Automatic annotation (TrEMBL):
The name this protein goes by in its record: Phosphoglycolate phosphatase
Transmembrane region(s): none
Organism: Rhynchophorus ferrugineus (Red palm weevil)
Annotated catalytic residues: D27 (proton donor), D29 (proton donor)
Annotated keywords: Hydrolase, Magnesium, Metal-binding
Length: 309
């Protein structure tokens, strides 16, 4: 399957596609904004689609911003808090679905810790094992391992997500739990490699330490973020989706956004205003599961085609 470029699409074909849609999901970073800076034309595009009676949803792997913070950041798109879905909500829904009642060891954001605590879970973080910095000696490392096995004996899930203050002690505790405490699940939130920060800069995301912990424990995470089944289940339930062909997913990453949309059997639109650039597409063919139906330079290009509808 080869994607269709928006620039090659006739007005008639574009109108047919837009008319067929009932619900449109958008990623945030690289699609609607770069950090706090709106991407030109993105807000106008979303507002135009609302005017055309399309339901709108926001699906982001951001696990450290509240719905209120995100809706404020996306005010140019008219986004409401209840329109935002993140891996944090997929995680809570998943734990509830399996009647989980044990402790959680978390490498993640303060927001996720608070959400888990408010949902009734006892959350343990690395600082609960040892508050002072670990010394550069084997004695301190052995003590961390010993204290982990004592403090974390009731842990039933290790959750790996974006933690801006991640350190090697946090990884040591996770590996100790997974290798020495039986029947512990390994779950992950955001595991992206990077996220766009501006035209010149990116944020290092958790993939490097998630990969390491999986390797050190010979385990694989059950993911909660795009392109996971857990997030898919959350969206299908939240929006009562019965016909995925009437849904469009718009993103800037083929590995998370497009792969997720394809796994849900949504139509998919890749925009080149974030992590992916035109030369990445032209260099070679993408795997089928990462190949979008459509490609546009940005939502601004789409808006220019839609503004007179």
């Amino acid at each position: 399957m080869s994607p269709t470029w928006l620039s090659d699409m006739s007005d008639t074909d574009l109108k047919h596609i837009i008319d067929s849609l009932e619900l449109i999901f958008f990623d945030v970073d690289g699609v609607l904004a770069l950090t706090t800076v709106p991407i030109p034309g993105a807000g106008e595009c979303v507002l135009k689609l609302r005017e055309l009676n399309k339901n709108i949803g926001i699906v982001t792997n951001n696990t450290f911003s509240t719905q209120k913070e995100l809706s404020t950041r996306l005010a140019h798109c008219g986004v409401k808090e209840e329109e935002i879905s993140t891996p944090n909500y997929a995680l809570l829904a998943y734990l509830k679905s399996i009647n989980f009642s044990k402790d959680v060891y978390l490498i993640g954001s303060v927001l996720l810790r608070d959400m888990l605590t408010n949902a009734g879970y006892n959350v343990i973080v690395s600082e609960d094992i040892r508050k002072e910095p670990i010394g550069e000696n084997f004695t301190d490392i052995v003590q961390v391992i010993t204290d982990t096995l004592s403090i974390c004996k009731n842990v039933g899930a290790v959750v790996l997500c974006f933690a801006i203050n991640f350190n090697s002690q946090a990884a040591q505790v996770a590996a100790t739990i997974l290798n020495h405490i039986p029947d512990v699940m390994l779950l992950s939130g955001a595991t992206d490699d990077t996220a766009p920060l501006s035209a010149k800069h990116f944020v290092v995301f958790p993939k490097y330490y998630v990969d390491g912990i999986e390797r050190w424990t010979n385990r694989k995470c059950t993911p909660m973020a795009k392109p996971s089944d857990a997030l898919k289940d959350l969206l299908f339930s939240k929006y009562n989706i019965t016909d995925p062909s009437k849904v469009l997913f718009v993103g800037d990453s083929v590995t998370s956004d497009i792969a997720f949309g394809r796994s849900c059997q949504f139509k998919t639109l890749l925009v080149l205003s974030g992590t992916m650039k035109k030369d990445h597409i032209l260099k070679g063919s993408l795997p089928e599961e990462q190949t979008p139906d459509f490609i546009a330079s940005s939502l601004g290009e789409l808006y220019q085609r839609l503004k007179n509808y």
